[in-house]
């Protein structure tokens, strides 16, 4: 439960931090994107305003608008007050004529290029001039009347860019509020008042990409920061899990050692107390039985103590000497067979040739004895069988220690060589969880490696790879 809460807290904290980081980066990008052209926009707006001083849309645009509206103003008024449908048709014809004339006679290309050249601006700048609406006023009490509104009149003959109006001139393809330089509503007076609204947009192609490239160092730092945060969170979590596992292993070890030491000590104390009784002292057979009990329990304690001492001293006083692997294994097997009682079996099939290796006899003997102890101690079969044999590869000899036990669960394979590790199913079996850890240390000393092949309910094959040409730097333990 605590593990799940910890994971959730770490994940939520990381996501919040990531969101804040990305949000700040996005806001920075938005500010840079907005400020990228703010000076240019003001400059172009001022220059454009001066170019259409006392005019509309562009130089000469006011004359075109006045000419067309003045010819139709009286007809529009009459239609408005007499026939609304006729007024709408007439408004459509007038606005289409007006917009087509404005587009046809537009000098905006030359005006815009003049502004660019005069102010040393980017020659790649593009513009778009749009006409948004025309309003006329026949009577102040009625107010302004639209004869064209790009937001509602969708059947204009010219191309429209919603919601900014009909395109009069220019090539910019992505008009928006950010690149809008001018949004003007200009009034005029003929027989009756009128007002037109138009927009000028200016932008450089790929402006967003340019801003992004300018912010590349910022993006890189943010990415690096996120990677570091992920790394720190991952390292913290892994470290926490490792410490948690170590604490659990140490707790299991302390419980095991308490049991493994308390049992023989308690037995010895009880036997010693019994030996102090006159009734027992007078019965020689009972005395001998109690002495044997004390001896067995003392040997058990001695075994546990030796195992822990072997672990602490394994890297001291290493004494490698040339030894025949066949003979060494055969000697160890013959000595161990004393502990194997029928119908259980321990067999060794030597290699056909002599195998001379640099081996520390004490370390190797203790390693193989630990493996043999495990193969019988953890084997629950009715007839326990362990076989040892040697095979050969081009670069290695392989020492196989194979049993017919219950096998090793897949989840435990990666941990069996860890110090104090004991599988949950083995907690009832005596031991300190040091046997295979000692094996690992022995392999490291000799520069050997080990593979484990196992099948539940069938058995396990420990394969020790012994290089024909020793490599003292090869100290890798693998589980396949």
TrEMBL record:
Organism from which the protein derives = Pedobacter chinensis
What are the protein's GO molecular function terms? Answer: phosphorelay sensor kinase activity
The UniProt catalytic activity note for this protein reads:
ATP + protein L-histidine = ADP + protein N-phospho-L-histidine
For this protein, what is the EC number? 2.7.13.3
| Taxonomy, superkingdom | Bacteria
A Pfam family found in this protein is HATPase_c
Q: Does the keyword DNA-binding apply?
A: no
Q: Where is the Histidine kinase domain?
A: 256-470
* The keyword Isomerase appears for this protein: no
Keywords in alphabetical order: Kinase, Membrane, Phosphoprotein, Transferase, Transmembrane, Transmembrane helix
The taxonomic lineage of its organism, from the top, reads:
Bacteria, Pseudomonadati, Bacteroidota, Sphingobacteriia, Sphingobacteriales
Q: Where are the transmembrane segments?
A: 215-235
EC top class named in words: transferase
What name does the UniProt record give this protein? histidine kinase
Q: Which InterPro entries match?
A: HATPase_C_sf, HATPase_dom, His_kinase_dom, HisK_dim/P_dom, HisK_dim/P_sf, Sig_transdc_His_kin-like_C
